[in-house]
Design brief:
By secondary structure, the protein is α+β, with helices and mostly antiparallel strands. It has two domains: 2-30 and 78-176, Alpha-Beta Complex (Cathepsin B, Chain A); 184-324, Up-down Bundle (Four Helix Bundle (Hemerythrin (Met), subunit A)). It has twelve helices and nine strands. The chain has helices at residues 15-26, 33-39, 66-75, 87-99, 153-161, 188-200, 208-218, 222-225, 229-241, 251-264, 268-297, 301-324; strands at 2-3, 43-48, 57-61, 78-82, 104-108, 125-132, 136-140, 148-152, 172-176. Helix 6 (188-200) crosses helix 12 (301-324). The mean pLDDT is 96.
């Protein structure tokens, strides 16, 4: 049995920030979940659609692992990433750091994890591993999934080796903080401006504020698009509100990040951004409720209203990001 000692293994709302939080606390850096999310320039939007999908997907953050790369680069942390197609090497890549007293981050498919409450394939799930014995791996996942949890070594191997959308090849990673670490406060403005610039100038129309505007046009058609709207639409709403987003498609997290920043930096543009994202978070929760109601009732008027709110959200978030670029 191997176990990293003296760890704070609390779960948070989102998987990647939960894992990052534990790895950084082990390095002596304790940041709030909104601060982790914001310093990683984590907020985004994507309207993801393809012919193979029963219903389009509304995503509210950057792609998996980009947040980790952003955060570690911005703070000057050493990020060591390992990937392999070899099951034996994949295990060595996690066992060796844990044996040496260092927790390890893993990207995997949550479908195979024994403790996971909803069995859906998601290859961009991130956990932190801090111990193992002959049968089980000991992990930290989100608070809704149980925080400090265990899964069999066999299930962990399947989860890590799964192939499909957003998966990685047995990806594992460690983070090391150097002596003389850049104070996180000094990196707030670059993080916000990077996030705002990407949101305002997306390369394709499915991303950023343009993606929200596209969703405003397409969501009213979802009853016709889905073969099983009674199941698909409420499920889409759950993904927006409760599936690790922190609520309101990650807007609650970004609102709280801006609020924390406003306590550290006195700036009118920052306060404007916070005010607008406070408004946006409420509207995103309303959109999710309307989508769920449409699926449950079969009434397309709910989706028409959702489309109208999404149109307003495209305007609000564009204005918020424009203000934040002026920091």
């Amino acid at each position: 049995m191997a176990m990293v000692k003296d760890l704070d293994v609390r779960g948070m709302q989102h998987c990647e920030t939960t894992a990052l939080g534990m790895l950084l606390r082990h390095e002596g850096l304790d940041l709030s979940e909104p601060m982790l999310f914001g310093l990683g320039s984590g907020l985004s939007f994507i309207y993801w659609d393809s012919k193979s999908m029963g219903l389009p997907f509304l995503g509210g953050r950057v792609k998996p692992f980009e947040l980790t790369r952003n955060l570690t680069a911005r703070l000057g942390l050493e990020l060591l990433v390992s990937e392999t197609t070899s099951p034996r090497k994949a295990w060595q890549n996690v066992a060796a750091p844990i044996d040496a007293g260092r927790p390890v981050g893993l990207q995997l498919d949550s479908y195979h994890l024994d403790y996971f409450s909803t069995k859906v394939h998601f290859g961009g799930h991130v956990v932190a591993m801090y111990g193992y014995d002959e049968q089980d791996a000991h992990l930290v996942d989100t608070d809704p999934q149980g925080g400090a949890v265990s899964t069999s070594l066999a299930s962990l191997a399947r989860a890590r080796a799964e192939r499909g959308p957003m998966t990685a090849k047995n990806r594992s990673f460690t983070i090391t903080a150097p002596v003389g670490l850049t104070p996180p406060r000094d990196r707030i403005v670059p993080a916000i401006k990077t996030c705002a610039d990407a949101f305002l100038h997306p390369p394709i129309a499915n991303l950023g504020h343009r993606g929200i505007a596209k969703a405003a046009e397409q969501v009213p058609k979802w009853l016709q698009r889905s073969a099983n709207p009674r199941e698909d639409l409420p499920q889409a709403a759950v993904l927006m509100e409760r599936a690790g987003t922190g609520g309101a498609l990650f807007r609650n997290l970004y609102r709280d990040f801006l609020a924390e920043c406003a306590q550290l930096i006195d700036n009118s543009h920052l306060r404007t951004g916070h005010t607008l994202y406070t408004e946006a978070a409420v509207f995103w929760t309303e959109v999710a409720a309307l989508i769920a109601a449409a699926g449950e009732s079969g009434d397309a008027d709910h989706l028409v209203r959702a489309g109208s709110v999404l149109g307003e959200l495209a305007r609000i978030e564009r204005s918020a990001m424009q203000a934040l670029t002026m920091l």
